[in-house]
Amino acid sequence: METQRQRKFSRLIQKELAEIFLKDAQWIVPGAWVSVTVVRMSPDLGVAKVFISFLMTDDKNAQLKKVQENAWQLRKMLGERIRKQVRIIPELIFYLDDTADYAAKIDKLMSGLDIPKEDQPEKENDKDED
């Protein structure tokens, strides 16, 4: 269970990383939109597990690999933004968040189901009202 401090810190990291991907680090994954979906902090606030999803790209694993290779630069950019608010700039570990793909897959499966409609039984009161 996360403490209040971990939750506040993870929201700060999520907000700042989203802005970094939007404005400063477009060169890492050109042509793709990066969404920071979840950030989970370690109890000592030294490690941040960052879950990201990509839009408008075909090879998400290749994009994730580019982000992981440039994690030190992202950490440096993050440090420049939040250095006056925190003591330790956390190590960033990036993971692919595939919940949107999973939801699309489930939606496709559900829309493909052929469920026959159940016949409505007639009400007995409607027949014998004379």
Labels describing this entry:
130 residues, alpha+beta, GMP Synthetase, Chain A, domain 3, three-stranded mixed beta sheet, 5 helices, 3 strands, elongated
Task: Describe this protein's structure.
The chain has helices at residues 4-24, 60-69, 71-82, 99-111, 124-127, and strands at 33-41, 47-55, 91-96. It has five helices and three strands; from the N terminus they run αββααβαα. The protein has one domain: 2-Layer Sandwich (GMP Synthetase, Chain A, domain 3), CATH 3.30.300.20. The protein is of the alpha+beta class and 130 residues long. α1 (4-24) crosses α3 (71-82). It has a three-stranded mixed sheet with strand order 1-2-3.
- How much β-strand is present in the residues? 15-25%
Largest β sheet strand count, sense and barrel closure: 3 strands, mixed
* Poorly predicted tracts of residues: none
If helices are DSSP runs of H or I spanning 4 or more residues, what is the number of helices? 5
List SSEs in N-to-C order: HEEHHEHH
The CATH homologous superfamily is called: K homology (KH) domain
- Helical fraction equals 40-55%
* Measured distance between first and last alpha carbons: 67 Å
Shape verdict? elongated
In the CATH scheme, the class would be Alpha Beta
From the alpha carbons, calculate the radius of gyration and give it in angstroms.
24 Å
* Widest β-sheet, arrangement of strands: 1-2-3
CATH-derived architecture: 2-Layer Sandwich
DSSP E strands, number: 3
Report the structural category: alpha+beta
Number of domains: 1
